[in-house]
Amino acid sequence: MRRRIMLPPLLLALVVGLGACSGDPEPIIEPAPSATATASPTSEPTPTAESVGESAKQFIRRWQMAAFEMQRTGDTGDYREMTQACESCNAFVDTVESIYGDGGSISLEEPSVVRIEKVGQSSGTSIYEFDTVTSATTVVDAKGKVSQRLEGGRTRYQVNLDRPDEVGWRVTRISELV
Question: In what order do the strands lie in the sheet containing 105-107?
Answer without folding.
Answer: 105-107, 137-140, 146-150
